[in-house]
Amino acid sequence: MGKKLVIVESPSKSKTINKYLGKDFTVKASKGHIKDLPKSKMGIDIENDFQPQYQVIKNKKAVIEDIKKAAKKADEIFLATDPDREGEAISYHLYQELSNINANIKRVLMNEITKRGIEEAFKNPTEIDLKKVDSQIARRVLDRLVGYKISPLLWKKVSGGLSAGRVQSIALKMICDREKEIKAFVQKEYWTIKADLSKKKEKDIFTAKLEKKGNKKLEIPDEKSAKKIEAEVINSPFVVEDIKLKKKTRNPLPPFITSSLQQAAYQTYRFSVKKTMMIAQKLYEGVSIGDKGPMGLITYMRTDSWRISPVANNELRAFIEKNFGKEYLAPKPRVYKKKNKAQDAHEAIRPTDINLTPDEVKPFLSSDEYKLYKLIWERFLQTQMASAKINETEVWIKAKDYLFKATGQIIAFDGFLKIAGHGKDTILPKLEKGEELDLHKLDLKQNFTQPPPRYTEGTLVKALEEKNIGRPSTYSQIISTLQNRVYVTKEKGFFHPTELGLFVEELLEKNFPTLMTYDFTAKMEEELDKISEGKLKWNDSIREFYKILEDELNKAYQNVEYVRSSGIKTEKKCPKCGSDMVLKNGRYGQYYKCTNEECGYTESYVGAVQETNEKCPVCGAPLVWKKGKYGRFLACSNYPKCTYIKKNSEKTKYACPNKDGGVLVKRRYKKRRGYFYGCSLYPKCKFITNDQPVDEKCPKCGWEYLLKSKKETYCPVCGYKKEEGKEEKDEK
Prior knowledge:
Layout (H helix, E strand, L loop, with lengths): L3 E5 L2 H10 L4 E5 L5 E2 L7 E2 L5 E2 L2 E2 L4 H13 L2 E4 L5 H14 L6 E3 L7 H9 L6 H28 L10 H17 L4 E11 L6 E8 L2 E2 L5 H11 L4 E13 L7 H12 L3 H13 L1 E2 L5 E2 L14 H15 L33 H4 L5 H16 L5 E12 L2 E12 L3 H4 L15 E13 L8 H10 L5 H13 L3 E4 L2 E4 L1 H13 L6 H15 L5 H22 L8 E6 L6 E7 L2 E6 L7 E3 L5 E6 L6 E7 L2 E6 L12 E7 L7 E6 L6 E5 L8 E2 L2 E3 L11 E3 L4 E2 L6 E3 L2 E3 L4
Parallel strand pairs: 1-2, 1-7, 7-8
Antiparallel strand pairs: 3-6, 4-5, 9-10, 9-17, 10-11, 10-16, 12-15, 12-17, 13-14, 15-16, 18-19, 20-21, 21-22, 22-23, 24-25, 25-26, 27-28, 28-29, 29-30, 31-32, 32-33, 33-34, 34-35
Helix pairs in contact: 3-5, 5-17, 5-18, 6-16, 8-12, 8-14, 9-12
């Protein structure tokens, strides 16, 4: 049998599938995309029907050469990149590079990195899906056109370092629109009245809330109205008017898709979208599980489908019956309605083996990996468990013309709630219609209506998905970009638009009235889906989009006010002289400047400041991250009253290789960017290195760590070198 070459994206994925493939297979990793549009120019030939000018990424040339060498020796090549648009594009670019060397190339799709998933994929190789490739090209071209056409307008008219994006700017609009709603919100007072009641001459008290007067819902606007009602009912009899018994069935939620996993991970563990996707990627690509070795624990995590394979469903149902009993198994396989989205070819996110319980794999996972795996495992388990049966009692109690409502709930059968969890039963006493009750207390409470809450990562993801803006696989990057551009800050988990963000959003919305709408962005997303389904040619979609972009862009260049030299007006006042302050762009980012030239006061842009939990040792105010000449630094938020700056040094766990009792300290260079490592006993010990310590013992002398440079990994004690996977001795 001839040699076979398998190409994946990730080195960790290659380790996992190596375990299942025989000695006839060689596995190489492309380490992500190998081609992209150039950074120095737009890279789209607009005159030639928007053809993208992809080129090999500079630091991937060595990777491609290594893959080409292996391709020359192989009889067959299998492209095993991820089963989505991006993975399809990577496979397509690999095909372009390798087809002249070896034309025997096949595509394999692995929804799970397990023995079963890999064997299934290699038994059924396919061709590259050019419709998916076209969809990825269209998305890339759209994003490049917006970024490279609108961003220069912002640089020229407003400030350097700003950017616009097809989805990024719409996400910013959502955050800014919510902020405007909050500012425009007018608080309204209202009162609630609750009655503590019991059966005659009994001590068990239950609570009923005033809901109606007659048959109309009652609103209590102020204390005067509440007191009036209190006076009317306080001495009147409270009589049971009606009792309604309801039997309810509660069904489990569907298995996770990308967006629902992101939301649940945030709600449960406050994981950021980025963190959730990074952990899920690792669980998909493979984790070493003791004697079992590396194996993928979950199916592919970028999916919009609720579909579960029949094999996985049957295994799940057998597991439930064996471990919980037949009464906890849904009577027939529960099928969730397929969502009408482009990536429905994938299954939902589920464990690859339901028998691998969270407790069983816990010793081999980090704390966060365990939490996310448990979340996915339990959600999948619930999908085929029996529905919960709930008995609900609704009691209406009359006092004069007023109706109070009390609700009781008993879980008759927990079903899937045995895993999902549920609150305690709320039990009402056995009551009869016409029965008079004892009133123990009337509780009058003042309340105020609340403005809509600001977005968290979880609620922003939910809102983007509901409006069909972007794709869940891109949400992490969108959120990071908004924060990196200082358009938004995150305070106690909530997104706040900065003055810069509000200014940019208003400018874009005013000058790009079509592009900056939710409906238009959602329409473009639907067109991308149609392209991936072969129902629309990507060039046609881009052509229509570009006409609108050019029209609005030309008008914007004429209408947008030039504020680059004068700065953006703000509501902030100068702390020295009280004059207005403007937001300007400097060499190291945005900053505030007093408009009074004689004053000349400047201050770090508050939007560029990120608060931490650390306190200033001088005045006790919170320390904040700021941007400076040599990057970020920690300083007191009470500046200029307090000028404390935390030293840019950090002790590590690594002993100094001079074995003098010191440890390596990570320090920042004073006159240039970057870090170096030096001995904590300086100036007594002058050891210094630019290279990164790595947790790997020296096989020659046993020293506890090696140092890694761009070219090699070596021992700082004996000189042993490990270069490009080959171990060799230093010739000193």
